[in-house]
């Protein structure tokens, strides 16, 4: 009996020691990561001086293949090494882009006032935090009750910048924002993509069996339609925001009433998360636009994207003529969206996103050509591209390495 | 053919207005951190006084009704000074009454008719009431009110530290249910004829759980399930004759004990206890204070009706600043002298 007690004490101490050692290593990892980030910024400084591009695919490939080899010698699978370093490289590239941008704009480091929808931990707020994570400049959120007040706030210069959702990969476009973009003629100065995980949030003691009514923003409910189809006894109800839905659940304290909201908001509301990611598709993303009065200057070293609107004449093939311009200049269009023009019934306005910087010669020529075939062309802004594609090691290189082992 | 709906339903209702939701009003006039502190501390102190854990006497002083925000703010400002100065013996709370039940008809209070002209703009009234309560709470002075309409607490109760149910509504089932769910201590007044049984029954009822129809923060109808309010107590306000004297207080204690209720009493120095003569209030208050000094531990507090200017006036174009437009009040000087002498 005593022996058993002693043994269990020993095991307990052992576990404690191991945990402490791991904790120490994790801190070392963090410190090393921070040092790596500093070095990466020095590299950016060097590239800025020599006029080199931020990304060097050949250099990245070299680095990755080297690392996977060394990893294998240490017993780490190449796939594990790759996924770890893709994250590190993404952060590094983003930090370097932001360094170039900040350097180019010669901005002050005063925090920006950022108009954002909802309340703390709304999806827009989370996207804003993600956007500023690699920037030197911080922001102070100004929470707005609706999209219109975000645009008004920037227009009246109460806020320096704003963030608005523009499209979701499951539920589609947020058409109201498209219309406001045109109405207020603000500039698009950036974009951010957020992987959205909708959580089912309820008071203590609730379960999928007790829940009858679920409240949330219409967008969130649309992105979780499959959940409601699978649980036909649960009714969905609209609220003006996910935070207002959470407040209702907190007020009712009733095991039959739940909300759909972000994990962060659920945690700070003190309610329980019954189910993480109840969205129809696990790969569920919302793209946000950053908007401001002044356009940004995107340096050549940073990959850019441009958004413009155009109206065509009412002749057959008018849109095709416009699209032909993109093709002939080798410009990659990433989005084409049409919206009705309220003052001209049955005529359409087209929103086009494409890769490229409106300051490049090629793009400038394309835009002036567009003006000859379209009736009206307005550039809404050139801004840094959000996506940082992971450099892939080709299969051949990987299998070669495996054979050498 | 379908019968037009209003020939059998809502026959005597000629119009409906949309009313702001509690949620929307609270966004316009939020509960700040400082005002939340005032309310929480105010409620805790009053509960401790009712429990006998705080020896001080609760004083609820202020206008019979509030009809003008400026004079109410000035009164609050002056009362806050006394609240701080006299805090070793008294716990002073401001009476801020926005809802006035009338004997027959008349002005029904700031929430109901903030423009004093019968236009009954309750959206404005609720806003003005909440704005004033938030201002006073921000000042650090707790407030007391009468809970008359069972829905209005959803709009303003988070800023209030103590509530009363009036003599005419103590017997009302609706008000007992409401009191069982209120977050602050609630006093029930004895009946206008002086009998205590309605108030005693009201306390028993309010301390028990109830289920009734109300609204939620978003303004939707909801079923409210209450836990019961353990801090409900009686207020002696006099009847056909005053009941603040020691014999009446003893009789009240006896009746509370018979009903298995803790003996905790607040005495209203006005109304039946001043025989409808406001000038008698200081005399009543002093006499009650004497009973407390003589060792009566059941008396927890005193209510006074006072404003900046004594007396009252009828509603007219040219109102005197700082004077009541409902029942007569004692003036500020008299209030200050009285409170300092207690």
From TrEMBL, chain A:
Chorismate mutase domain mapped to chain residues: 9-100
Keyword Phosphoprotein tagged: no
One matching Pfam family: PDT
One BP annotation, GO: chorismate metabolic process
GO cellular component: cytoplasm
Database matches in SMART domains: CM_2
Pathway involvement of the protein, from the record: Amino-acid biosynthesis; L-phenylalanine biosynthesis; phenylpyruvate from prephenate: step 1/1; Metabolic intermediate biosynthesis; prephenate biosynthesis; prephenate from chorismate: step 1/1
EC annotation from Swiss-Prot or TrEMBL: 4.2.1.51, 5.4.99.5
Compartments where located: Cytoplasm
Major localization listed first in the record, in broad terms: cytoplasm
All copies of domain ACT, residue ranges: 307-384
Catalytic activity: prephenate + H(+) = 3-phenylpyruvate + CO2 + H2O; chorismate = prephenate
Superkingdom of the organism of origin: Bacteria
Residues engaged in binding substrate: 19, 36, 47, 56, 60, 92, 96
Site feature: Essential for prephenate dehydratase activity: 286
Annotated signal sequence range: none
One annotated GO molecular function: prephenate dehydratase activity
Every Prephenate dehydratase domain range: 113-293
Keywords noted in UniProt: Amino-acid biosynthesis, Aromatic amino acid biosynthesis, Cytoplasm, Isomerase, Lyase, Multifunctional enzyme, Phenylalanine biosynthesis
General function of this protein: Catalyzes the Claisen rearrangement of chorismate to prephenate and the decarboxylation/dehydration of prephenate to phenylpyruvate.
Cited PANTHER family: PREPHENATE DEHYDRATASE P PROTEIN, PREPHENATE DEHYDRATASE-RELATED
Protein name: Bifunctional chorismate mutase/prephenate dehydratase
Native species: Kangiella spongicola
